[in-house]
Amino acid sequence: MAVAPSAARDHHRGRGGGRRHGGRAGAHRADPDGLPVDRADRHRGRHRRGRRRAAGIDFFGDGGLAVVAIGSGFALLEIGANTNTLIGTEDIPGTGTDVVVVPGGARTYVATSEGATAFDTSGPLADNIGTVVSGTEVFAMAAVANGTGVLLATEAGVVVVDPVRGRTVDTIPMLGQKFGMATNPRTPRAYVANADVNAVTVLDTETNAVVDTILTGAYTSDVAISSDGARGYVAQQNAVAVFRTDTNTVVSTIQVPGGGILTDVAVTPDGRRAYVIGGSRVFAIDVTNAAVLGNLMVAPGGGTLGDIAIHPDGAAPT
Q1: Helix, strand, coil percentages in the chain from 3-state DSSP, rounded to 5
Q2: SS3 at position 17
Q3: Distance between CA atoms of 302 and 68, rounded to whole angstroms?
Q4: Does residue 280 contact residue 298 with C-beta atoms inside 8 Å?
Q5: Res 81: pLDDT
Q6: Under CATH, which number does the domain 6-307 receive?
């Protein structure tokens, strides 16, 4: 698939760091004072088991190019101040559930209901370099901040993949439905939202071991990490739990009245705002003052939103 002209990709490459890297981690897109751009249908949480129609989004470089997991594969978009252009698509088996760009942009991983596939995105074409896992749904993915690994959340556990070769190097056993995952941009830690146990599992990404468990609240569905690595934000039922990453303890809970089961959370790069999805609405939260600023019906008619992406520079293109 011709995903982008070489010049455009070279211009926009350089950060590339994972939709689940550094803030739910990493590349989420929204106006820092407004409401974010949503992703397609993702139904997270055990109450939606077996019915998830998901999508993911991540950015290359400074955010001029975005890759999006869609119903049958992924698409590449050119993001600009005056235009948002579909460049191309690529089909793979299964229904798209997530996508992550490895820091540096040379590899892109696409997860589906049937496994995960690695693509070489170092040049002007997205070349399929092989299936990473197959025969099982990959719920969420995250790129380790230093680019040394990609984490895939499956029902049996978290699969650790060599990002360059696209080969499994380890599996961290972990039961339960793991519908959200983030890595810390400052420390070798990853965080997995586990809806079955209402907790966030903390992983050491150097030893590939579980090191702690953070008890949160009902229907723990997603987790985001602030860009400074100091705080974590957890989407749950009618609330967002905030935890410190140095102690792995919940320090506050921000109530989101009328939010229902919140399925996705994203934090702006400056750490001032968080955005959560509750059904067909997106709620904007002032993190500093622990206050809900308002909400917007993004999917009229009862449609369910999926996910949120905040642009690397923290501002939505007009």
Answers
A1: 5, 50, 45
A2: coil
A3: 23
A4: yes
A5: 61
A6: 2.130.10.10
50-68 residues labelled b (16+ CB within 10 A) or e (exposed) = eebbbbbbbbbbbbbbbbb
| pLDDT at position 55 | 61
Residues 6 or more apart whose Cβ sits within 8 Å of residue 280: 297, 298, 299, 300, 301, 302, 303, 304, 305
> What span, in angstroms and rounded, lies between the C-alpha atoms of 275 and 18?
18
**What confidence score (pLDDT) does residue 72 get?**
73
What are the tokens at 303?
């449609």
The answer to whether the beta carbons of residues 239 and 253 sit under 8 Å apart is: yes
In angstroms, the first-to-last Cα distance of the chain is 28
Boundaries of every domain in the chain: 6-307
Phi–psi pair at 6, nearest 5 degrees: -55, -40
- The predicted pLDDT at position 286 comes to 95
The pLDDT score that the predictor gives to residue 44 is 35
Q: Which of 301, 293, 52, 3 has the alpha carbon at shortest distance from 178?
A: 52
The structure tokens 């935890």 sit at 243
Neighbours of 253 (CB within 10 A): 17
Q: Give every residue of the chain whose pLDDT is below 50, as ranges.
A: 1-54, 316-318
Q: What is the DSSP string of 56-110?
A: -EEEETTTTEEEEEETTEEEEEEE-SS-EEEEEEEE-SS-EEEEEEPTTSSEEEE
Burial of 78 (0-12, 13-18, 19+ CB in 10 A): middle
